[in-house]
Write a structure and sequence with these properties.
Number of helices: 5
Low-confidence stretches: none
Shape: globular
Strand content: 25-35%
Largest sheet: 5 strands, parallel
Radius of gyration: 14 Å
Structural class: alpha/beta
Helix content: 25-40%
């Protein structure tokens, strides 16, 4: 699994890769890489983060196995897990963006690698048409 920096993720998007943000819809709506699609790996609930049982079904309904994807999340953990799931399902051109949207932290909570939002890369708070989880799940 190739893990790339936020700047490399933007370069790959400019080359035709799609950015799949696997954070919860609430996190996505608070800010995300411009042009990103949102399919949460986990849902934010009053009981904490819970697995999205429809994750693979929604991904497979919207992206063919040959689609070039960059996956991102908040800090890099969920996107790596999601990338591994997609590879196991037959996706072959998957890249994982290190440090996610906020940044990767060490055990004490200190940011050790800044994420997308801290590097002055293009961000949005509104999903482009057809790229929100609501839109993508309706197609599944």
């Amino acid at each position: 699994m190739e893990r790339i920096s936020p700047e490399q993720a933007l370069e790959k998007m400019n080359e035709g890769y799609l950015y799949l943000d696997v954070r919860s819809t609430q996190e996505f709506e608070a800010g995300h890489p411009q042009g990103a699609y949102n399919i949460p790996l986990l849902h934010m609930t009053p009981e904490g983060m819970q697995p999205n049982p429809d994750f693979m079904r929604v991904v497979e309904a919207n992206f063919p196995k040959e689609q070039k994807l960059v996956l991102g999340c908040k800090a890099g953990g969920r996107s790596l897990r999601a990338a591994q799931m997609l590879e196991a399902a037959g996706y072959r051109d998957i890249l994982d963006q290190r440090a996610g949207y906020i940044g990767a932290a060490d055990a004490s909570g200190q940011i050790v690698e800044q994420g997308w939002s801290k590097r002055n890369l293009p961000i949005a708070t509104q999903a482009e048409s057809g790229r929100s989880y609501g839109d993508l799940s309706q197609r599944a």
